[in-house]
Amino acid sequence: MAIDKDHAARTALRLLDADGLEKLTVRRLARELGVQAPALYWHFANKRALLDHMTDAMLAPTAARLGRPRSGRPWWEWLGDTLEALRRALLAHRDGAAVASGADLRRAVALGLHAERITEVLYESGFALADASRAAGAVLHFTVGRVVEEQSRADAGTEQAMISDPAFPFPLLARSLRERHAAAATPDDDFDYALAIVLAGLRTLHTNAAETPTRQP
Q: Is the separation of the CB atoms in 146 and 175 below 8 Å?
């Protein structure tokens, strides 16, 4: 039986959504596809290769919509929207960010396209090329890592019980979390706040670089 990698990756995403990453194996996927595991290993040398193709399938629609900043629109607004869209794509699948974490961009091409476009936009906005590349890696790692935490976090009831426990050893943290619960703060609010910090830092680096005089040889 011929195996189509795209079909296999989409099937693996369906299994992921049903049971999570811990229960997803190449052997289980082979059973779902009706083939022997050795046949599937010809296409996916190991689980990392499978996860990379799953990452590509997850992010391909978002990558296809990657545009460029419209004329007159600041680069940081474009970058914020791009990272918000990436987060939504990862959240659309159970353990989606864990799947993408550590991806090989030779196979997870859609994630590589994000890195390439962000680097391009930052470079054209005045960052040195090496800095643009480092910044692209930083914001992508921030987004993926943040969603890993979000998808691994205890449910709201568990967190509420934890911070209401008189024996909880961090009183100021408990108070701040209670205040956020009272204000009905959402994971979206938390991400937006953290993203604003990241973008403010990049804007400061951009401004400082522009104001630093170029050394003459």
A: no
